[in-house]
């Protein structure tokens, strides 16, 4: 998939890094993925909002965590496109989600809400106005998949399928989320240490998983899982940036479309 002009409701449309050190994180990600940045001063409360770009197209974002996030580890937030942020937020609340912020307008870019699912996984909804979200994905060094590491897989199936209308393609080890017939994300039993709540993990497509793994290490990153091959899917690795935010890279055997 090349450039995007819109996102179908129910699909992942944006990813955003909240970090303790945006200057260091900017150096890491621009070096790792050859991204550039478009930096916007959002005022004294929020500071600089960094939009990462590939070839001039928006592909992710970053901001410095504020005092209200003291104690929250750096993390990647996944956003789902919705038709109506208010209606989706009310539906999420009725299903047991904890709404952390919103719904609120982000200038004239869109309307959003931030929530935690019933197992504690942060996720945001985005009703696009002027800003659709990522403008490029599913190619090297861009988002290609979002995966829920779930503490309670059956409960998460019910929550997300009801909230977003996702259909499920199920196997004993993995659940694929679909919008219609289109795979848009997945879920597996969390492999995180006990006590770590569920979380959404973004995957970035790469041309060479092993080379990118070594490059990340050279830039100060570390790994949760070294490069491993999943037959029929691709070769992947789960990494942490120098500030501790978790993400994955994958050299796909098959192209995902979201």
Task: Provide a descriptive summary of the structure in words.
The structure is a single chain. The N and C termini lie close together (9 Å). The chain has helices at residues 22-33, 85-94, 153-164, 209-218, and strands spanning 12-19, 36-41, 48-54, 57-64, 75-81, 98-106, 110-116, 122-128, 143-150, 167-170, 175-179, 182-189, 199-205, 222-230, 234-240, 246-252. With 258 residues, the chain is an alpha+beta fold. Strands 2-3-4-1-5-8-7-6 form an 8-stranded mixed β-sheet, covered by helices on one side. The chain has 4 helices and 16 strands. The mean pLDDT is 93. It folds into 2 domains: 12-128, Roll (2,3-Dihydroxybiphenyl 1,2-Dioxygenase, domain 1), CATH 3.10.180; 143-252, 2,3-Dihydroxybiphenyl 1,2-Dioxygenase, domain 1. The longest helix has 12 residues, at 22-33.
SSE blueprint and pairings:
Layout lengths: L11 E8 L2 H12 L2 E6 L6 E7 L2 E8 L10 E7 L3 H10 L3 E9 L3 E7 L5 E7 L14 E8 L2 H12 L2 E4 L4 E5 L2 E8 L9 E7 L3 H10 L3 E9 L3 E7 L5 E7 L6
Parallel strand pairs: 1-4, 5-8, 9-12, 13-16
Antiparallel strand pairs: 1-5, 2-3, 3-4, 6-7, 7-8, 9-13, 10-11, 11-12, 14-15, 15-16
Element order: H for helix, E for strand: EHEEEEHEEEEHEEEEHEEE
Low-confidence stretches: none
Strand segment tally: 16
Overall mean pLDDT score?
A: 93
Computed structural class: alpha+beta
How would you briefly describe this protein structure?
With 258 residues, this protein is an alpha+beta fold. It has 4 helices and 16 strands.
């Amino acid at each position: 998939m090349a450039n995007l002009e819109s996102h179908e409701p129910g699909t992942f449309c944006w990813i955003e890094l909240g970090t303790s050190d945006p200057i260091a994180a900017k150096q890491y990600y621009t070096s790792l993925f050859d991204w550039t940045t478009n930096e916007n001063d959002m005022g004294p409360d929020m500071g600089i909002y960094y939009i990462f770009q590939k070839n001039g197209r928006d592909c992710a974002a970053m901001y410095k965590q504020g005092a209200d996030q003291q104690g929250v580890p750096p993390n990647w937030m996944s956003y789902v496109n919705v038709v109506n942020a208010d209606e989706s937020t009310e539906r999420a609340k009725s299903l047991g989600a904890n709404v952390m912020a919103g719904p609120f307008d982000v200038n004239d870019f869109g309307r959003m809400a931030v929530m935690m699912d019933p197992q504690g996984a942060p996720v945001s909804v985005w009703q696009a106005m002027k800003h659709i979200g990522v403008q490029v994905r599913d190619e090297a060094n861009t988002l290609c998949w979002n995966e829920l590491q779930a503490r309670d897989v059956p409960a998460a199936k019910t929550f997300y399928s009801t909230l977003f209308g996702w259909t499920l393609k199920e196997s004993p080890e993995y659940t694929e989320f679909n919008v219609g017939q289109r795979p848009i994300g997945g879920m597996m039993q969390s492999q995180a240490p006990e006590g770590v709540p569920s979380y959404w993990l973004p995957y970035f497509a790469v041309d060479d998983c092993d080379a990118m793994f070594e490059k990340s290490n050279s830039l100060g990153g570390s790994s949760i899982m070294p490069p491993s091959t999943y037959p029929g899917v691709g070769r992947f690795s789960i990494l942490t940036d120098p500030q501790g935010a978790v993400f994955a890279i994958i050299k796909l055997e098959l192209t995902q479309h979201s």
